[in-house]
Structure formats: structure tokens, C-alpha cells
Design brief:
The chain is of the alpha/beta class. The protein is built from 3 helices and 5 strands, in the order H-E-E-E-H-E-H-E. It has a 5-stranded mixed sheet with strand order 3-2-1-4-5, covered by helices on one side. The protein is rod-shaped and about 115 Å long.
């Protein structure tokens, strides 16, 4: 009695199901990666119900038209640092504090420019807000 074995290995392998799984995983990771890193930053802005204890020596103001003022004098942006340095060299104060008043429609970039001037000169800066 001659019995034949039916356990021959089929040498052909179908890759279609494997490529479907790979494409599904690729789409899943692409969708979840855009959900993890949003395009906008969520910022917690300070409340204006409390006031700081530091008193400002001078003020820098930025109007809606992007005009810069040191106290009540309109100055070009390029001259702000020189004017403030000249003002503070004549005053014997340990900690220089500047109050920055910016209109709510002023772009953040313009506010950061003034903040960088204060940081470069190691001055304290208070960002003024309106009361609630």
C-alpha cells in the first residue's frame, strides 16, 4: 500500500495582504502624528487682577500704528536702546525696571523686540495690562 504525503510546502507567497496592512499602518501613523503636534501654541496669559510690587522707572509704549514712545516722546525703534541707556547711566538705581505698554492690536513680534532690548541690557521689564 503506497500512501502519499500531502504536506508539501507551497513555494508561492502572497504579499497582497501584507502590503494592505503596511499601508493601513502608514495612514494611521500619519494621521496620529498630525494630531500630536498641532500647528498653534496654547499660551496661558497672565491675569490682570494683581499688580506687581516693582515700580517702573520709565515707560515704553507701542501704539496701534506701531509708533514707539519713551515716556511721552515719540522715537524711532532704532533709537530706543540708546535713549534708555543714556537715561539709566545718569540714575544711580540698582535694578532698572521698564514698563511696556502695548496696544492689544500690536503684533507680538514688536513687543518681543522691546523685550530683547531689556534682556540684552539686563533690565527688568513689566508688561502692562488693563484691569479686568
Amino acid at each position: 500500500m503506497a500512501l502519499k504525503r500531502r504536506t508539501k510546502v507551497d513555494p508561492n507567497f502572497s504579499m497582497s495582504s501584507m502590503t494592505d496592512i503596511v499601508f493601513l499602518l502608514l495612514i494611521f501613523f500619519m494621521v496620529t502624528s498630525t494630531l500630536i503636534a498641532p500647528n498653534a501654541l496654547k499660551l496661558l496669559l497672565p491675569k490682570s487682577s494683581h499688580q506687581t510690587s516693582a515700580s517702573a522707572i520709565t515707560t515704553v509704549s507701542i501704539t496701534e500704528d506701531l509708533n514707539y514712545y519713551v515716556e511721552m516722546n515719540q522715537v524711532p525703534f532704532e533709537d530706543i536702546e540708546a535713549i534708555l541707556q543714556h537715561k539709566f547711566t545718569n540714575t544711580p538705581i540698582e535694578e532698572v525696571t521698564i514698563s511696556l505698554h502695548a496696544h492689544q492690536m500690536v503684533p507680538v513680534q514688536e513687543v518681543v523686540k522691546v523685550m530683547n532690548i531689556a534682556k540684552d541690557n539686563k533690565w527688568k521689564l513689566i508688561l502692562a495690562t488693563s484691569a479686568k
